[in-house]
Specification:
The complex is a heterotetramer, with two copies of chain A and two copies of chain B. Chain A has 13 helices and seven strands. By secondary structure, chain A is α/β, with parallel strands linked by helices. In chain A, the strands form two sheets. Chain A has a five-stranded parallel β-sheet, with helices on both faces. Chain A is globular, with a radius of gyration of 21 Å. Chain B folds into two domains: about 180 residues, Rossmann fold (3-Layer(aba) Sandwich); about 130 residues, Rossmann fold, CATH 3.40.50.920. Chain B is about 40% helix and about 20% strand. In chain B, helix 8 packs across helix 12. Classes of the chains: A alpha/beta, B alpha/beta. Chains in contact: A-B, A-C, A-D, B-C, B-D, C-D. The interface between B and C is large, with 53 and 53 residues. Bound molecules: thiamine diphosphate (2 copies) and magnesium ion (2 copies). One magnesium ion binds next to strand 4 of chain D. Chains B, C: One of its GO terms (molecular function) is oxidoreductase activity. Chains B, C: This is Pyruvate dehydrogenase E1 component beta subunit. Chains B, C: It holds the Pfam family Transketolase_C.
Chain lengths: ~350, ~325, ~325, ~350
């Protein structure tokens, strides 16, 4: 369906991981710009800056045919899995040219071609779908895995435990990926639970469970490799990735509930910068090469804004489309109904 | 043509669909080894195995959510919700996910799943096991809604539902499972979405569905015998899509319509039917469309109170007489 | 008399109630330190402390369930559901527990809790953050339902709701928070359950509530100015209880009624209003009661599609003109 | 409100525990009889035979002012807490003379006087209420605890985890009591989860958690004593009690899904018999005294059937009562509405 951006089928090393993280970072920065320019559809834009290693580390071990669901802060994951950033940006702008023709927006992007079963604006809402995808894989004896990505806040939702229990019980090829950025809106994880060692819950349901530090993308990728391989073999898994939400909850939130010192420390845990430094220090890549890569990415992402801004608004006639399958009648518009009844037709 | 029951017809529909299509799976609480709380899925696990008849933990929300994912990933899940009363736990997955996925994602994919469940009164099962909650579903764009009243439809409507490209909530009535009837599985059923005129009559039109259809038919008999009143009776069969084309000429002829629903009256299915019939047939109506529906109260466990919390054949008869006085 | 906003009036109501009654607690996601997703509870945690303004995990079902238990145990909880769109997760606790406890337990105890939430379109928030789901609540016996449209009612209706002996779902509109208005907190408000005639008019009666009331009022202005049409406009204020006594004489005089609701049309609040007005005023109606309601579709994130998915002032105006042509 | 049967405020020893267990057992047997005689309201009767130690052991450490919620199999708990068995039986028969005037039935009994916030026909439905009751206790600085009783099947419900998380987070005086009778309808616990050590889940949320063998009522009582005391002091707890459901799920179920040998073994774990044997063997009570006690209980419980059977049906006029508070208008009956509109009034 969609042309995929080169995403390695296995962890092909730090340069690639860096490149993908940089793409996510830059994309999110452009989303912020889109908003500032007044061109986004609404302000419910949740940037994943600071969480790039989770998206990129995990997705680096996903294969063709694998499926996944994401949450409201899912741009990075989708991009890391190979999405077209221009169509993403257009969707975020609510345009016809976006992935969902302007109906979904930032929180409801999907691409069946890439196995993206959908982002979700309901915290926890996308989690159980992977159980179903896991059943489909099992019954079809397909060697695929299905991953649910969600935030630490979703651990407040009962449906996570219902889903983990099912996955463990049926030994499904499923993995639960909790991106623990320490906050659900203004609530710090220790204000939301008495035990923030989230993987212990998964263990109690019989899953293979780990927590990794998101600062190191290679650690994330290694943990993901191991757990995903296990999940494919019928050992469903849970991976918590510790990171920090660099900015506010949504575009307008300035996080007044966080101390400056805490924020500064949190933003120090920058997986993108860390990978860059490592590449240079270990001599794998020269700073100038990295600068060139970054510049190329910046260009690519600049273009997404142009694409988004220049795209058409959805046609009014599309409003009644896709409530039901194309072969079905569309819902009768209120106007038609009223004209009809007043005309006694 | 075989003689069977509503329950038997449902089971036959599931069996035939599973034989025809490998992708069909049944999932829910007690659907396998137990055979279903009302016995509908009895024996299916032996025939189709544990991978296709899946006993789940007591996790209604995740059952529906898993069915959504399964449908997106290529299966044709038939999820069972043991009682429609438990729909509250599933409403997010049903209304925010199943119903909206096709639309939100710009038509990329549909969610061809069934949520089979049952509702209604009649077993002294109390306030949390006797409700008729179809209005919640009918009010949710994106969800189809089918409610079979007859043995024929227990089979054919379920078979049709299982071929729909969009999610269908399929609500059976607990009071009908043992009802007997003839079934021709190879007969051409009424089209999906078409209502069925069960009885002609030019004095008043009674529009109903599910178990109340039988109350309406019984009332129509009494009215004919005792009062010479000719009541037309319509079985809606599906509430989404809904077929007013069939109802309209009948009401225009009779000039009087009554809608009968077991759901509570306020903001329920009866309200929609009454509003819609009024819109379509306004100039022909002698009286407002009369809503005979469940009382605006919870259902008691006391059999006496339970019985009178929803329309009875006697009450339908009485109302028709009042209308034609 | 103070000049404030809908948001400010809500906050004032909460503040006054908390000062008056130690038993009042607020609980929900982000109600404390964050001050509420829409800022309604800002500052309350500083004034009343963490034990009375309780930030919860993201657990909608348990928030409502905990409020039920708290109410039974003597508190007066005001639970906040950040978006009415999340009501699906709470429907079991709301409809099977809160709504039915008094009845099931034979009147032993009530559940005097409030579920405060907000709904509606206007912020490009997409299909899962823009709905108007009051019909689910209205269809559930045992639940009271209040939907303030004005700054006055943001205060007085909430204060009244907090004195009710039964559970009240209190739905604000996200598009109204910044609306300014005058508030006299010591004024005698319209009685709980009474509708308010916002504007007299003998050509057509427009019945509405929440934000659509303002669309109706705008339309009525235009109709008067441009067409000399006199539209009466009624603000229902509460949907349970609901006040038809106020509406009836107006409709009998005008002979024409339009109901305006942001919720989707089918089986929604507009259906109940249309059915009920027809029942009450049948002989006086020149036309069927016209339902101007949300389209039977999910809400798009595209501002253009979003806007036209629900009634606009222009559309209401146009429909009134059609009715009076 | 209701006169309480003597239930010790603390564990006053095996004779009392035995007596209360016997009362539960005999009561449940009479419920079975009521059904056989066709006098119960419906057949949704879930007997707690085999689980008496859970009800009695835990309730022996509840005090005045404590509150609790129960599940569909809650007769025994309510009785152990001091309910009037005659009014219970009348409720089960759907009579005006029952606890809820025939509106609730077996699955919806409650008594505010005893702190019984209600039985529930929704699996897991009564659990979160104790969080609210715990908040009320905390805010009111009352030295009371609130207990949620539920079955192993309820561990499939997400709301349990949401509730446990809140209780642990806010250190509420709350205890979760899981009566693990090995089955949820026809589903054995190991068919419902990959890890049946249920207390591990509670631990993962930060609760104090234990599993005890329900065969020994004194062990249950001791564990309950300790955990309830902790809960009162702000250490919310979870207690799983292992037992066996002697009969079918509801009155009509013959448990064809269970092997006879398994059932025989399960029924061997009889806490009532065990306590009786212990009383005799340890010389605390003579068999004749026990026989006399049993006979007295049998008589008491026989009388409940008479009370239930001879009670009045609810008045039709009560149908519209108690939907809302007494001072509020009752809902308009459908009949009244129709008469009114057809008469154009
Ligand atoms: C069911 C539900 N409840 C509440 C919200 C409002 N909300 C949106 S995001 C969010 C915080 C989620 O936190 P987390 O899961 O940690 O994700 P993060 O934003 O940190 O990425 C909340 C409360 C929602 N969208 N859905
Ligand atoms: C939400 C919900 N789902 C399903 C049911 C049907 N049901 C009633 S009891 C039961 C089994 C419960 O098992 P458990 O919690 O172990 O309690 P037990 O019956 O063993 O005492 C089921 C599935 C229900 N009443 N409520
Ligand atoms: Mg977070
Ligand atoms: Mg059990």
């Amino acid at each position: 369906m969609t042309e995929k951006n080169s995403m390695p089928g296995s962890n092909s090393g730090l340069p690639d991981l860096y490149r993908h993280m940089r793409r996510v970072r830059t994309f999110e920065e452009r989303v912020g710009e889109l908003f500032v320019r007044g061109k986004s559809a609404g302000s419910m834009l949740h940037l994943s800056v600071g969480e790039e290693s989770a998206a990129v580390g995990v997705c680096s071990h996903m294969h063709d045919g694998d499926t996944f669901t994401t949450h409201h802060r899912g741009h990075g994951i989708f991009l890391a899995r190979g999405a077209d950033p221009a169509r993403m940006m257009a969707e975020i702008a609510g345009k016809e040219t976006g992935y969902c023709h302007g109906k979904g927006g930032s929180m409801h992007i999907a691409d069946m071609g890439l196995g993206h079963l959908g982002a979700n604006a309901i915290v926890g809402g996308g989690i159980p779908a992977v159980v179903g995808a896991g059943l489909a894989a099992r019954n079809g004896k397909k060697d695929v895995v299905s991953l649910a990505f969600f935030g630490d806040g979703a651990t407040g939702q009962g449906i996570l435990y219902e889903s983990m229990n099912m996955a463990a019980l049926w030994r499904l090829p499923v993995m639960f990926v909790c991106i623990n950025n320490q906050y659900g809106m203004g609530t710090r994880i220790d204000q939301a639970t008495a035990n923030p060692r989230l993987h212990e819950r998964a263990e109690a349901f019989g899953l293979v469970a780990r927590t990794v530090d998101g600062l190191e993308v290679e650690e994330v990728a290694d943990a993901a490799a191991e757990l995903i391989a296990g999940a494919r073999a019928g050992k469903p898994a849970f991976l918590a990735i510790e990171c920090y939400r660099f900015y506010g909850h949504a575009r307008k939130d300035k996080s007044p509930y966080r101390a400056e010192a805490e924020e500064a420390e949190g933003r120090n845990k920058d997986p993108v910068l860390r990978a860059r430094t490592k590449l240079i220090e270990s001599g794998i890549m020269a700073e100038t090469d990295l600068d060139a890569m970054d510049a190329e990415i910046a260009q690519e992402m600049d273009a997404t804004i142009d694409f988004a801004v220049s795209g058409n608004e959805p046609q009014m006639s599309s409003m009644f489309r896709d409530v039901y399958a194309p072969e079905e009648a569309e819902p009768e518009p209120v106007r038609t109904r009223i004209e009809r009844i007043l005309a006694r037709q | 043509m075989i003689e069977t029951t509503y329950r038997g017809a449902l089971r036959q529909a599931l069996t035939d669909a599973m034989q025809e299509n490998e992708a069909v799976v049944i999932m829910g609480e007690e659907v396998g080894r137990y055979g279903g709380a009302y016995g509908v899925t009895k024996g299916l696990i032996d025939e189709f195995g544990e991978d296709r008849v899946i006993d789940t933990p007591i996790s209604e929300a995740a059952i529906v959510g898993a069915a959504v994912g399964a449908a997106m990933a290529g299966l044709r899940p038939v999820a069972e919700l043991m009682y429609v009363d438990f729909i509250g736990m599933t409403m997010d997955q049903l209304a925010n996910q199943a119903a909206k996925i096709r639309y939100m994602f710009g038509g990329q994919i549909g969610v061809p799943m069934i949520l089979r469940t049952q509702g209604g009164t009649g077993r002294s099962a109390g306030a949390q096991h006797s409700q008729s909650l179809e209005a919640y579903v009918m009010h949710t764009p994106g969800l189809r809604l089918a409610m079979p009243a007859t043995v024929e439809d227990a089979y054919h409507l379920l078979r049709q539902a299982m071929k729909q490209p969009d999610p269908v909530v399929f609500i059976e009535h607990k009071g009908l499972y043992t009802m007997k009837g003839e079934l021709d599985t190879s007969a051409e059923p009424a089209a999906w979405g078409k209502a069925r005129v069960m009885r002609e009559g030019s004095d008043v039109v009674i529009v109903s569905y599910s178990r109340q259809l039988h109350h309406a038919l019984a009332a129509a008999d009494t009215l004919e015998k005792e009062n010479g009143i000719q009541a037309a009776v319509v079985d809606l069969r599906t509430l989404n899509p809904i077929d007013f084309a069939t109802i309209r000429p009948l009401v225009e002829q009779a000039g009087r319509a009554m809608v009968v629903s077991e759901g509570v009256m306020t903001a329920g299915v009866a309200a929609e039917l009454a509003a819609r019939i009024t819109e379509e047939c306004f100039d022909y109506l002698e009286d407002p469309v009369v809503r005979v529906a469940g009382e605006d109260i919870p259902i008691s466990v006391s059999p006496l109170l339970e019985k009178h919390s929803v329309p009875t054949p006697e009450f339908i008869t009485e109302v028709a007489r009042m209308m034609l006085k």
